[in-house]
Structure to design on (595 residues):
Protein backbone atom coordinates (compact mmCIF):
# COMPACT_ATOMS: atom_id res chain seq x y z
CA UNK A 1 0.00 0.00 0.00
CA UNK A 2 2.68 2.46 1.04
CA UNK A 3 4.72 1.64 -1.99
CA UNK A 4 1.77 2.36 -4.30
CA UNK A 5 1.23 5.71 -2.64
CA UNK A 6 4.90 6.62 -3.06
CA UNK A 7 4.85 5.51 -6.67
CA UNK A 8 1.84 7.69 -7.34
CA UNK A 9 3.07 10.68 -5.38
CA UNK A 10 6.67 10.72 -6.61
CA UNK A 11 6.11 12.35 -10.03
CA UNK A 12 3.82 14.91 -8.42
CA UNK A 13 6.35 15.83 -5.74
CA UNK A 14 9.11 16.09 -8.35
CA UNK A 15 6.98 18.36 -10.52
CA UNK A 16 6.06 20.47 -7.52
CA UNK A 17 9.72 20.87 -6.54
CA UNK A 18 10.67 21.77 -10.09
CA UNK A 19 7.87 24.32 -10.27
CA UNK A 20 8.81 25.79 -6.90
CA UNK A 21 12.38 26.67 -7.91
CA UNK A 22 11.31 28.38 -11.13
CA UNK A 23 11.16 31.93 -9.69
CA UNK A 24 14.76 31.48 -8.45
CA UNK A 25 16.13 30.82 -11.91
CA UNK A 26 13.91 33.06 -13.97
CA UNK A 27 12.29 36.44 -13.56
CA UNK A 28 10.47 39.16 -15.46
CA UNK A 29 8.78 38.01 -18.61
CA UNK A 30 8.89 34.26 -18.13
CA UNK A 31 7.91 34.42 -14.48
CA UNK A 32 4.87 36.48 -15.42
CA UNK A 33 3.84 33.88 -18.00
CA UNK A 34 4.44 31.11 -15.46
CA UNK A 35 2.25 32.92 -12.93
CA UNK A 36 -0.55 33.19 -15.47
CA UNK A 37 -0.15 29.51 -16.31
CA UNK A 38 -0.19 28.58 -12.63
CA UNK A 39 -3.39 30.58 -12.17
CA UNK A 40 -5.02 28.68 -15.03
CA UNK A 41 -3.71 25.34 -13.74
CA UNK A 42 -5.44 25.88 -10.40
CA UNK A 43 -8.62 27.16 -12.08
CA UNK A 44 -8.88 24.52 -14.82
CA UNK A 45 -8.07 21.60 -12.56
CA UNK A 46 -10.65 22.62 -9.99
CA UNK A 47 -13.12 23.29 -12.81
CA UNK A 48 -12.59 19.76 -14.12
CA UNK A 49 -13.22 18.27 -10.67
CA UNK A 50 -16.86 19.17 -11.14
CA UNK A 51 -17.36 19.40 -14.89
CA UNK A 52 -15.26 16.36 -15.79
CA UNK A 53 -17.38 13.63 -14.25
CA UNK A 54 -20.76 15.40 -14.53
CA UNK A 55 -20.32 16.69 -18.14
CA UNK A 56 -21.89 19.98 -17.09
CA UNK A 57 -20.11 22.96 -18.64
CA UNK A 58 -19.85 25.46 -15.80
CA UNK A 59 -19.25 29.01 -17.01
CA UNK A 60 -19.20 30.51 -13.56
CA UNK A 61 -15.44 30.67 -13.03
CA UNK A 62 -15.36 34.36 -13.98
CA UNK A 63 -18.03 35.16 -11.40
CA UNK A 64 -16.27 33.38 -8.52
CA UNK A 65 -12.87 34.65 -9.55
CA UNK A 66 -14.29 38.16 -9.69
CA UNK A 67 -15.81 37.82 -6.23
CA UNK A 68 -12.39 36.85 -4.92
CA UNK A 69 -10.64 39.79 -6.55
CA UNK A 70 -13.35 42.32 -5.82
CA UNK A 71 -13.71 41.39 -2.15
CA UNK A 72 -9.98 41.71 -1.63
CA UNK A 73 -10.13 45.10 -3.35
CA UNK A 74 -13.09 46.49 -1.45
CA UNK A 75 -11.96 45.00 1.85
CA UNK A 76 -8.50 46.52 1.66
CA UNK A 77 -9.55 49.88 0.17
CA UNK A 78 -12.86 50.59 1.87
CA UNK A 79 -12.70 48.70 5.14
CA UNK A 80 -8.97 48.64 5.96
CA UNK A 81 -8.81 44.90 6.28
CA UNK A 82 -5.62 42.97 5.69
CA UNK A 83 -5.09 40.95 2.54
CA UNK A 84 -5.11 37.73 4.55
CA UNK A 85 -8.49 38.35 6.18
CA UNK A 86 -10.09 39.11 2.83
CA UNK A 87 -8.42 36.12 1.18
CA UNK A 88 -10.17 33.98 3.79
CA UNK A 89 -13.57 35.68 3.54
CA UNK A 90 -13.74 35.70 -0.28
CA UNK A 91 -13.75 31.92 -0.84
CA UNK A 92 -16.43 31.51 1.84
CA UNK A 93 -18.67 34.05 0.09
CA UNK A 94 -18.11 32.36 -3.27
CA UNK A 95 -18.85 28.95 -1.80
CA UNK A 96 -22.12 30.28 -0.42
CA UNK A 97 -23.02 31.69 -3.85
CA UNK A 98 -22.14 28.35 -5.44
CA UNK A 99 -24.42 26.66 -2.94
CA UNK A 100 -27.33 28.92 -3.90
CA UNK A 101 -26.74 28.55 -7.64
CA UNK A 102 -26.33 24.81 -7.24
CA UNK A 103 -29.49 24.41 -5.20
CA UNK A 104 -31.51 26.42 -7.71
CA UNK A 105 -30.26 24.71 -10.86
CA UNK A 106 -28.61 21.35 -10.22
CA UNK A 107 -31.83 19.66 -9.12
CA UNK A 108 -33.08 20.21 -12.67
CA UNK A 109 -31.75 19.29 -16.09
CA UNK A 110 -28.19 20.20 -16.93
CA UNK A 111 -29.12 22.80 -19.55
CA UNK A 112 -30.57 25.09 -16.91
CA UNK A 113 -27.30 25.00 -15.05
CA UNK A 114 -25.23 25.88 -18.10
CA UNK A 115 -27.54 28.75 -19.02
CA UNK A 116 -27.58 30.09 -15.49
CA UNK A 117 -23.81 30.14 -15.25
CA UNK A 118 -23.46 31.67 -18.75
CA UNK A 119 -24.52 35.14 -17.64
CA UNK A 120 -23.59 34.85 -13.99
CA UNK A 121 -20.33 36.82 -14.16
CA UNK A 122 -22.00 39.61 -16.13
CA UNK A 123 -24.97 39.68 -13.74
CA UNK A 124 -22.79 39.84 -10.61
CA UNK A 125 -20.71 42.55 -12.29
CA UNK A 126 -23.82 44.66 -13.00
CA UNK A 127 -25.04 44.19 -9.45
CA UNK A 128 -21.68 45.03 -7.89
CA UNK A 129 -21.22 48.12 -10.11
CA UNK A 130 -24.70 49.31 -9.19
CA UNK A 131 -24.12 48.86 -5.46
CA UNK A 132 -20.75 50.55 -5.71
CA UNK A 133 -21.99 53.51 -7.75
CA UNK A 134 -25.04 54.16 -5.60
CA UNK A 135 -23.99 53.30 -2.08
CA UNK A 136 -20.24 53.11 -1.77
CA UNK A 137 -19.15 55.92 -4.05
CA UNK A 138 -17.66 55.19 -7.44
CA UNK A 139 -13.98 55.16 -6.89
CA UNK A 140 -11.36 52.63 -7.82
CA UNK A 141 -10.10 50.06 -5.36
CA UNK A 142 -6.40 49.81 -4.68
CA UNK A 143 -4.76 46.57 -3.64
CA UNK A 144 -1.37 47.58 -2.35
CA UNK A 145 0.76 44.80 -0.88
CA UNK A 146 4.49 44.09 -0.78
CA UNK A 147 4.03 40.83 -2.69
CA UNK A 148 6.32 40.32 -5.64
CA UNK A 149 5.37 38.25 -8.66
CA UNK A 150 7.31 35.33 -7.13
CA UNK A 151 5.19 35.43 -3.95
CA UNK A 152 1.99 35.31 -5.96
CA UNK A 153 3.43 32.49 -8.03
CA UNK A 154 4.26 30.45 -4.94
CA UNK A 155 0.83 31.02 -3.41
CA UNK A 156 -0.83 29.90 -6.64
CA UNK A 157 1.44 26.87 -6.74
CA UNK A 158 0.34 25.97 -3.22
CA UNK A 159 -3.31 26.32 -4.21
CA UNK A 160 -2.74 24.19 -7.30
CA UNK A 161 -1.08 21.51 -5.17
CA UNK A 162 -4.02 21.53 -2.77
CA UNK A 163 -6.42 21.24 -5.72
CA UNK A 164 -4.52 18.17 -6.93
CA UNK A 165 -4.56 16.59 -3.47
CA UNK A 166 -8.26 17.34 -3.06
CA UNK A 167 -8.91 15.97 -6.54
CA UNK A 168 -7.16 12.67 -5.94
CA UNK A 169 -8.87 12.36 -2.57
CA UNK A 170 -12.29 13.00 -4.15
CA UNK A 171 -11.59 10.51 -6.93
CA UNK A 172 -10.99 7.77 -4.39
CA UNK A 173 -13.82 8.76 -2.10
CA UNK A 174 -17.45 7.70 -2.22
CA UNK A 175 -18.33 11.16 -3.52
CA UNK A 176 -16.08 10.79 -6.56
CA UNK A 177 -17.44 7.34 -7.27
CA UNK A 178 -21.00 8.64 -6.98
CA UNK A 179 -20.20 11.49 -9.35
CA UNK A 180 -18.80 9.16 -12.00
CA UNK A 181 -22.00 7.11 -11.85
CA UNK A 182 -24.06 10.29 -12.19
CA UNK A 183 -22.03 11.32 -15.21
CA UNK A 184 -22.53 7.95 -16.89
CA UNK A 185 -26.23 7.64 -16.19
CA UNK A 186 -28.09 9.85 -13.79
CA UNK A 187 -31.12 7.54 -13.79
CA UNK A 188 -29.02 4.62 -12.59
CA UNK A 189 -27.38 6.79 -9.96
CA UNK A 190 -30.75 7.76 -8.56
CA UNK A 191 -31.90 4.15 -8.47
CA UNK A 192 -28.91 2.93 -6.50
CA UNK A 193 -29.69 5.53 -3.89
CA UNK A 194 -27.28 8.37 -4.65
CA UNK A 195 -28.46 11.84 -3.73
CA UNK A 196 -27.55 13.21 -7.16
CA UNK A 197 -28.38 16.85 -6.51
CA UNK A 198 -26.31 17.12 -3.33
CA UNK A 199 -23.30 15.31 -4.76
CA UNK A 200 -23.23 17.79 -7.62
CA UNK A 201 -23.82 20.80 -5.39
CA UNK A 202 -20.94 19.85 -3.06
CA UNK A 203 -18.50 19.46 -5.95
CA UNK A 204 -19.68 22.71 -7.51
CA UNK A 205 -19.05 24.47 -4.20
CA UNK A 206 -15.48 23.16 -4.22
CA UNK A 207 -14.97 24.68 -7.66
CA UNK A 208 -16.38 28.01 -6.48
CA UNK A 209 -14.16 28.00 -3.41
CA UNK A 210 -10.94 27.51 -5.36
CA UNK A 211 -11.87 29.99 -8.10
CA UNK A 212 -12.46 32.73 -5.52
CA UNK A 213 -9.27 31.86 -3.68
CA UNK A 214 -7.30 32.18 -6.91
CA UNK A 215 -9.08 35.45 -7.66
CA UNK A 216 -8.12 36.79 -4.24
CA UNK A 217 -4.47 35.78 -4.62
CA UNK A 218 -4.20 37.29 -8.10
CA UNK A 219 -5.78 40.60 -6.99
CA UNK A 220 -2.45 42.20 -5.88
CA UNK A 221 -1.21 41.64 -9.43
CA UNK A 222 -3.74 44.17 -10.76
CA UNK A 223 -3.13 46.72 -7.93
CA UNK A 224 -6.10 48.75 -9.21
CA UNK A 225 -9.39 46.87 -9.20
CA UNK A 226 -12.57 47.67 -11.06
CA UNK A 227 -15.59 45.38 -11.43
CA UNK A 228 -15.12 45.52 -15.22
CA UNK A 229 -11.66 44.04 -14.93
CA UNK A 230 -12.13 41.21 -12.46
CA UNK A 231 -15.57 39.96 -13.55
CA UNK A 232 -14.42 38.93 -16.99
CA UNK A 233 -16.66 36.45 -18.81
CA UNK A 234 -13.71 35.65 -21.07
CA UNK A 235 -11.89 34.03 -18.16
CA UNK A 236 -14.66 31.43 -17.77
CA UNK A 237 -14.25 30.44 -21.40
CA UNK A 238 -10.46 30.31 -21.22
CA UNK A 239 -10.68 27.92 -18.29
CA UNK A 240 -13.15 25.69 -20.15
CA UNK A 241 -11.01 25.62 -23.29
CA UNK A 242 -7.79 24.79 -21.46
CA UNK A 243 -9.40 22.02 -19.40
CA UNK A 244 -11.07 20.47 -22.44
CA UNK A 245 -7.94 20.79 -24.53
CA UNK A 246 -6.04 18.76 -21.97
CA UNK A 247 -8.88 16.34 -21.32
CA UNK A 248 -11.10 16.23 -18.27
CA UNK A 249 -11.27 12.50 -17.56
CA UNK A 250 -7.86 12.52 -15.84
CA UNK A 251 -6.86 14.67 -12.91
CA UNK A 252 -3.67 15.84 -14.67
CA UNK A 253 -5.50 16.40 -17.99
CA UNK A 254 -6.09 20.15 -17.60
CA UNK A 255 -2.40 20.61 -16.72
CA UNK A 256 -1.49 19.22 -20.14
CA UNK A 257 -3.85 21.70 -21.78
CA UNK A 258 -2.96 24.82 -19.81
CA UNK A 259 0.76 24.97 -20.54
CA UNK A 260 0.66 24.86 -24.36
CA UNK A 261 -2.45 27.02 -24.50
CA UNK A 262 -1.01 29.73 -22.26
CA UNK A 263 2.09 29.91 -24.45
CA UNK A 264 0.05 29.89 -27.67
CA UNK A 265 -2.30 32.51 -26.27
CA UNK A 266 0.62 34.74 -25.31
CA UNK A 267 1.88 34.55 -28.89
CA UNK A 268 -1.60 35.26 -30.29
CA UNK A 269 -2.28 38.27 -28.07
CA UNK A 270 1.07 39.74 -29.04
CA UNK A 271 0.75 39.15 -32.80
CA UNK A 272 -3.01 39.63 -33.29
CA UNK A 273 -4.26 41.76 -30.38
CA UNK A 274 -7.51 42.57 -32.20
CA UNK A 275 -8.56 39.07 -33.15
CA UNK A 276 -8.35 37.25 -29.82
CA UNK A 277 -12.10 36.55 -29.82
CA UNK A 278 -11.83 35.00 -33.25
CA UNK A 279 -9.05 32.69 -32.05
CA UNK A 280 -11.01 31.80 -28.93
CA UNK A 281 -13.86 30.67 -31.18
CA UNK A 282 -11.57 28.73 -33.48
CA UNK A 283 -10.05 26.89 -30.50
CA UNK A 284 -13.52 25.85 -29.35
CA UNK A 285 -14.32 24.50 -32.81
CA UNK A 286 -10.95 22.77 -33.02
CA UNK A 287 -11.58 20.94 -29.75
CA UNK A 288 -15.14 19.88 -30.55
CA UNK A 289 -14.42 18.62 -34.05
CA UNK A 290 -10.86 17.33 -33.88
CA UNK A 291 -9.87 16.48 -30.30
CA UNK A 292 -13.11 15.81 -28.41
CA UNK A 293 -11.31 13.97 -25.60
CA UNK A 294 -8.41 16.36 -25.29
CA UNK A 295 -4.68 15.67 -25.42
CA UNK A 296 -4.93 12.95 -22.76
CA UNK A 297 -7.59 11.17 -24.81
CA UNK A 298 -5.31 11.47 -27.84
CA UNK A 299 -2.33 10.00 -25.96
CA UNK A 300 -4.41 7.16 -24.63
CA UNK A 301 -5.76 6.14 -28.04
CA UNK A 302 -2.20 6.28 -29.44
CA UNK A 303 -0.90 4.15 -26.56
CA UNK A 304 -3.77 1.71 -27.11
CA UNK A 305 -2.89 1.40 -30.80
CA UNK A 306 0.79 0.84 -30.05
CA UNK A 307 -0.02 -1.94 -27.59
CA UNK A 308 -2.05 -3.72 -30.25
CA UNK B 1 -48.71 53.64 -18.55
CA UNK B 2 -45.77 54.84 -20.62
CA UNK B 3 -43.64 52.14 -19.04
CA UNK B 4 -46.29 49.52 -19.63
CA UNK B 5 -46.55 50.37 -23.28
CA UNK B 6 -42.86 50.51 -24.09
CA UNK B 7 -42.33 47.34 -22.04
CA UNK B 8 -44.91 45.50 -24.13
CA UNK B 9 -43.41 46.85 -27.35
CA UNK B 10 -39.95 45.64 -26.29
CA UNK B 11 -41.40 42.29 -25.30
CA UNK B 12 -42.86 41.85 -28.77
CA UNK B 13 -39.42 41.97 -30.33
CA UNK B 14 -38.00 39.68 -27.65
CA UNK B 15 -40.74 37.19 -28.54
CA UNK B 16 -39.45 37.06 -32.08
CA UNK B 17 -35.92 36.12 -31.11
CA UNK B 18 -37.16 33.59 -28.55
CA UNK B 19 -39.31 31.99 -31.25
CA UNK B 20 -36.22 31.56 -33.39
CA UNK B 21 -34.35 29.86 -30.57
CA UNK B 22 -37.39 27.77 -29.75
CA UNK B 23 -37.40 26.32 -33.27
CA UNK B 24 -33.68 25.59 -33.06
CA UNK B 25 -33.76 23.96 -29.65
CA UNK B 26 -37.26 22.50 -29.63
CA UNK B 27 -37.12 20.94 -33.08
CA UNK B 28 -33.50 20.63 -34.20
CA UNK B 29 -32.40 19.92 -30.59
CA UNK B 30 -29.43 22.23 -30.86
CA UNK B 31 -28.87 24.52 -27.91
CA UNK B 32 -27.69 27.36 -30.13
CA UNK B 33 -25.63 29.73 -28.02
CA UNK B 34 -24.67 31.68 -31.14
CA UNK B 35 -28.29 32.83 -31.40
CA UNK B 36 -27.52 36.30 -30.04
CA UNK B 37 -24.74 36.76 -32.59
CA UNK B 38 -27.22 35.92 -35.36
CA UNK B 39 -29.40 38.70 -33.98
CA UNK B 40 -26.52 41.16 -33.89
CA UNK B 41 -25.62 40.16 -37.45
CA UNK B 42 -29.14 41.14 -38.51
CA UNK B 43 -28.63 44.46 -36.74
CA UNK B 44 -25.24 44.98 -38.36
CA UNK B 45 -26.72 44.40 -41.81
CA UNK B 46 -29.40 47.02 -41.13
CA UNK B 47 -26.83 49.50 -39.82
CA UNK B 48 -24.45 48.96 -42.69
CA UNK B 49 -27.06 49.19 -45.46
CA UNK B 50 -28.69 52.22 -43.84
CA UNK B 51 -25.51 54.22 -43.34
CA UNK B 52 -23.79 53.28 -46.60
CA UNK B 53 -26.70 53.00 -49.03
CA UNK B 54 -29.59 54.61 -47.12
CA UNK B 55 -31.67 51.47 -47.41
CA UNK B 56 -34.55 51.34 -44.94
CA UNK B 57 -34.21 48.62 -42.27
CA UNK B 58 -37.66 47.42 -43.25
CA UNK B 59 -36.32 46.68 -46.71
CA UNK B 60 -33.20 45.10 -45.21
CA UNK B 61 -35.41 42.39 -43.72
CA UNK B 62 -36.12 41.11 -47.20
CA UNK B 63 -32.38 40.75 -47.79
CA UNK B 64 -31.47 39.49 -44.32
CA UNK B 65 -34.08 36.74 -44.06
CA UNK B 66 -33.05 34.61 -47.06
CA UNK B 67 -29.33 35.11 -46.34
CA UNK B 68 -29.74 34.04 -42.71
CA UNK B 69 -31.88 31.12 -43.82
CA UNK B 70 -29.21 29.82 -46.20
CA UNK B 71 -26.39 30.53 -43.73
CA UNK B 72 -28.08 28.68 -40.91
CA UNK B 73 -29.04 25.80 -43.16
CA UNK B 74 -25.40 25.38 -44.17
CA UNK B 75 -24.25 25.60 -40.54
CA UNK B 76 -26.70 22.91 -39.52
CA UNK B 77 -25.96 20.67 -42.48
CA UNK B 78 -22.16 20.80 -42.33
CA UNK B 79 -21.27 21.65 -38.74
CA UNK B 80 -24.07 20.45 -36.50
CA UNK B 81 -25.44 17.37 -38.25
CA UNK B 82 -22.09 15.55 -37.79
CA UNK B 83 -22.43 16.21 -34.05
CA UNK B 84 -26.00 14.89 -34.05
CA UNK B 85 -24.82 11.73 -35.79
CA UNK B 86 -21.79 11.34 -33.50
CA UNK B 87 -23.69 11.77 -30.23
CA UNK B 88 -24.68 8.60 -28.44
CA UNK B 89 -27.37 10.31 -26.40
CA UNK B 90 -29.09 13.64 -25.87
CA UNK B 91 -26.68 14.63 -23.08
CA UNK B 92 -23.64 14.17 -25.31
CA UNK B 93 -25.28 16.17 -28.08
CA UNK B 94 -26.09 18.95 -25.64
CA UNK B 95 -22.46 19.26 -24.49
CA UNK B 96 -21.10 19.12 -28.05
CA UNK B 97 -23.60 21.57 -29.47
CA UNK B 98 -23.05 23.99 -26.60
CA UNK B 99 -19.29 23.96 -27.18
CA UNK B 100 -19.56 24.13 -30.97
CA UNK B 101 -22.02 27.03 -30.92
CA UNK B 102 -19.81 28.84 -28.39
CA UNK B 103 -17.04 28.51 -30.93
CA UNK B 104 -19.27 29.87 -33.66
CA UNK B 105 -20.44 32.76 -31.52
CA UNK B 106 -16.86 33.82 -30.77
CA UNK B 107 -15.89 33.51 -34.42
CA UNK B 108 -18.88 35.66 -35.40
CA UNK B 109 -18.02 38.26 -32.77
CA UNK B 110 -14.43 38.28 -34.01
CA UNK B 111 -15.55 38.78 -37.59
CA UNK B 112 -18.06 41.48 -36.69
CA UNK B 113 -15.51 43.39 -34.60
CA UNK B 114 -13.21 43.44 -37.60
CA UNK B 115 -16.04 44.76 -39.80
CA UNK B 116 -17.26 47.43 -37.38
CA UNK B 117 -15.76 47.61 -33.90
CA UNK B 118 -17.91 50.44 -32.58
CA UNK B 119 -21.58 50.86 -31.75
CA UNK B 120 -24.06 50.40 -34.59
CA UNK B 121 -25.63 53.83 -34.21
CA UNK B 122 -28.13 55.09 -36.73
CA UNK B 123 -31.40 56.89 -36.49
CA UNK B 124 -34.46 55.50 -38.17
CA UNK B 125 -38.03 56.68 -37.50
CA UNK B 126 -36.98 58.16 -34.18
CA UNK B 127 -40.12 60.29 -34.13
CA UNK B 128 -42.70 60.51 -31.38
CA UNK B 129 -46.01 58.87 -32.08
CA UNK B 130 -49.21 59.13 -30.07
CA UNK B 131 -50.88 55.88 -29.23
CA UNK B 132 -53.89 55.69 -26.88
CA UNK B 133 -53.00 59.08 -25.51
CA UNK B 134 -49.38 58.10 -24.82
CA UNK B 135 -46.27 58.98 -26.70
CA UNK B 136 -44.12 56.15 -27.95
CA UNK B 137 -41.19 56.11 -30.34
CA UNK B 138 -42.37 55.27 -33.83
CA UNK B 139 -39.49 52.84 -34.45
CA UNK B 140 -40.50 50.76 -31.44
CA UNK B 141 -44.04 50.55 -32.70
CA UNK B 142 -42.95 49.60 -36.21
CA UNK B 143 -40.66 46.90 -34.82
CA UNK B 144 -43.51 45.57 -32.71
CA UNK B 145 -45.87 45.41 -35.65
CA UNK B 146 -43.18 43.68 -37.70
CA UNK B 147 -42.67 41.15 -34.91
CA UNK B 148 -46.41 40.50 -34.74
CA UNK B 149 -46.67 39.89 -38.50
CA UNK B 150 -43.73 37.47 -38.53
CA UNK B 151 -44.84 35.75 -35.34
CA UNK B 152 -48.37 35.36 -36.71
CA UNK B 153 -47.09 33.90 -39.95
CA UNK B 154 -44.90 31.47 -38.05
CA UNK B 155 -47.81 30.41 -35.85
CA UNK B 156 -50.02 29.86 -38.88
CA UNK B 157 -47.33 27.87 -40.65
CA UNK B 158 -46.70 25.60 -37.68
CA UNK B 159 -50.32 24.91 -36.86
CA UNK B 160 -52.18 25.05 -40.15
CA UNK B 161 -49.89 23.66 -42.84
CA UNK B 162 -48.63 20.23 -43.72
CA UNK B 163 -44.91 21.04 -43.44
CA UNK B 164 -45.52 22.89 -40.17
CA UNK B 165 -47.17 19.78 -38.74
CA UNK B 166 -44.09 17.75 -39.67
CA UNK B 167 -41.94 20.24 -37.78
CA UNK B 168 -44.13 19.92 -34.71
CA UNK B 169 -44.03 16.13 -35.00
CA UNK B 170 -40.22 16.16 -34.93
CA UNK B 171 -40.29 18.41 -31.87
CA UNK B 172 -42.44 15.85 -30.03
CA UNK B 173 -40.32 12.83 -30.87
CA UNK B 174 -37.58 12.42 -33.44
CA UNK B 175 -37.98 8.64 -33.42
CA UNK B 176 -41.74 8.55 -33.86
CA UNK B 177 -41.53 11.22 -36.56
CA UNK B 178 -39.03 9.09 -38.43
CA UNK B 179 -41.35 6.09 -38.17
CA UNK B 180 -44.26 7.88 -39.84
CA UNK B 181 -42.08 8.78 -42.80
CA UNK B 182 -40.82 12.24 -41.94
CA UNK B 183 -37.28 13.00 -43.06
CA UNK B 184 -36.06 14.10 -39.63
CA UNK B 185 -32.70 15.46 -40.80
CA UNK B 186 -34.33 17.61 -43.45
CA UNK B 187 -37.06 18.93 -41.18
CA UNK B 188 -34.49 19.68 -38.44
CA UNK B 189 -32.31 21.58 -40.91
CA UNK B 190 -35.38 23.50 -42.09
CA UNK B 191 -36.40 24.37 -38.53
CA UNK B 192 -32.86 25.44 -37.65
CA UNK B 193 -32.63 27.62 -40.76
CA UNK B 194 -36.00 29.26 -40.19
CA UNK B 195 -35.14 29.79 -36.54
CA UNK B 196 -31.93 31.55 -37.53
CA UNK B 197 -33.72 33.69 -40.13
CA UNK B 198 -36.39 34.74 -37.62
CA UNK B 199 -33.72 35.69 -35.08
CA UNK B 200 -31.76 37.70 -37.64
CA UNK B 201 -34.90 39.59 -38.66
CA UNK B 202 -35.56 40.23 -34.98
CA UNK B 203 -32.08 41.75 -34.82
CA UNK B 204 -32.79 44.01 -37.76
CA UNK B 205 -35.95 45.25 -36.05
CA UNK B 206 -34.31 45.67 -32.63
CA UNK B 207 -31.41 47.63 -34.10
CA UNK B 208 -33.82 50.42 -35.06
CA UNK B 209 -34.37 51.35 -31.42
CA UNK B 210 -31.59 49.70 -29.37
CA UNK B 211 -27.96 50.46 -30.12
CA UNK B 212 -26.14 47.19 -30.65
CA UNK B 213 -22.45 46.41 -30.84
CA UNK B 214 -20.49 43.42 -32.00
CA UNK B 215 -20.10 41.78 -28.60
CA UNK B 216 -23.56 42.32 -27.14
CA UNK B 217 -24.95 39.08 -28.59
CA UNK B 218 -24.44 36.99 -25.49
CA UNK B 219 -26.81 39.22 -23.51
CA UNK B 220 -29.53 38.55 -26.07
CA UNK B 221 -28.75 34.84 -26.07
CA UNK B 222 -29.21 34.90 -22.32
CA UNK B 223 -32.55 36.71 -22.59
CA UNK B 224 -33.82 34.40 -25.30
CA UNK B 225 -32.87 31.38 -23.18
CA UNK B 226 -34.65 32.77 -20.13
CA UNK B 227 -37.77 33.38 -22.23
CA UNK B 228 -37.49 29.90 -23.71
CA UNK B 229 -37.34 28.27 -20.30
CA UNK B 230 -40.01 30.46 -18.81
CA UNK B 231 -42.38 29.76 -21.69
CA UNK B 232 -41.53 26.09 -21.92
CA UNK B 233 -39.50 24.47 -24.69
CA UNK B 234 -41.50 24.02 -27.88
CA UNK B 235 -44.35 26.24 -26.68
CA UNK B 236 -44.88 29.30 -28.88
CA UNK B 237 -47.74 30.72 -26.78
CA UNK B 238 -45.64 30.42 -23.63
CA UNK B 239 -42.69 32.09 -25.35
CA UNK B 240 -44.79 35.10 -26.37
CA UNK B 241 -46.19 35.63 -22.88
CA UNK B 242 -42.79 35.08 -21.28
CA UNK B 243 -41.24 37.60 -23.69
CA UNK B 244 -43.86 40.20 -22.81
CA UNK B 245 -43.25 39.61 -19.09
CA UNK B 246 -39.49 39.99 -19.53
CA UNK B 247 -39.91 43.13 -21.66
CA UNK B 248 -42.21 44.66 -19.04
CA UNK B 249 -40.07 43.82 -16.02
CA UNK B 250 -36.91 45.04 -17.74
CA UNK B 251 -38.50 48.33 -18.71
CA UNK B 252 -39.88 48.84 -15.20
CA UNK B 253 -36.53 48.10 -13.57
CA UNK B 254 -34.67 50.28 -16.08
CA UNK B 255 -36.92 53.31 -15.56
CA UNK B 256 -37.68 53.00 -11.86
CA UNK B 257 -34.36 51.75 -10.44
CA UNK B 258 -31.38 51.76 -12.81
CA UNK B 259 -30.83 50.85 -16.48
CA UNK B 260 -27.74 48.89 -15.46
CA UNK B 261 -29.85 46.35 -13.66
CA UNK B 262 -31.86 44.86 -16.54
CA UNK B 263 -29.77 41.69 -16.60
CA UNK B 264 -30.14 41.35 -12.84
CA UNK B 265 -33.91 41.64 -13.29
CA UNK B 266 -33.83 38.97 -15.98
CA UNK B 267 -31.89 36.73 -13.62
CA UNK B 268 -34.38 37.32 -10.82
CA UNK B 269 -37.18 36.16 -13.14
CA UNK B 270 -35.07 33.18 -14.20
CA UNK B 271 -34.51 32.21 -10.57
CA UNK B 272 -38.23 32.39 -9.80
CA UNK B 273 -39.01 30.22 -12.81
CA UNK B 274 -36.42 27.63 -11.77
CA UNK B 275 -37.70 27.55 -8.21
CA UNK B 276 -41.44 27.54 -8.86
CA UNK B 277 -42.21 26.52 -12.45
CA UNK B 278 -39.19 24.76 -14.01
CA UNK B 279 -41.49 23.14 -16.57
CA UNK B 280 -42.46 26.52 -18.01
CA UNK B 281 -45.59 28.66 -17.68
CA UNK B 282 -47.92 26.28 -19.46
CA UNK B 283 -45.89 23.10 -19.20
CA UNK B 284 -47.15 20.09 -17.36
CA UNK B 285 -45.06 18.53 -14.63
CA UNK B 286 -43.11 15.56 -15.88
CA UNK B 287 -43.05 12.51 -13.69
Amino acid sequence: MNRIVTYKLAPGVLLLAAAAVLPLVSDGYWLSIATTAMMYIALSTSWALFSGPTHLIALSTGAFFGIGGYLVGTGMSDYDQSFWTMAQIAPVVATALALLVGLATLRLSGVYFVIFTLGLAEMVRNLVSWVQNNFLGSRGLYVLTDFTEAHIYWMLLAVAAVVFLAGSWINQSRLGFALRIIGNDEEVARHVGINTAWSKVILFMTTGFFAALVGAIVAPRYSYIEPNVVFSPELSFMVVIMALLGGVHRLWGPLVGVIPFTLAWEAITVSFPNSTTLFLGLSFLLIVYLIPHGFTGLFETMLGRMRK
Amino acid sequence: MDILLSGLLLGGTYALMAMGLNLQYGVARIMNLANGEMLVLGGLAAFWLFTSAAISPLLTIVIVAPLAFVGNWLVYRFLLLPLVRRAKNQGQLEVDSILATFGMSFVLVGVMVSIHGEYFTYSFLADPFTLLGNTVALNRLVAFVGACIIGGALYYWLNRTYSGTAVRAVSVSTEAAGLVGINVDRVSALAFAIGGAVTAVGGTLISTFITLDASIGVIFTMKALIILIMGGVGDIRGAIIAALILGLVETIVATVIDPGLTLVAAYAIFLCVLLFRPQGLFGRKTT
In short: Chain A has a mean pLDDT of 83. Chain A has one domain: 2-232.
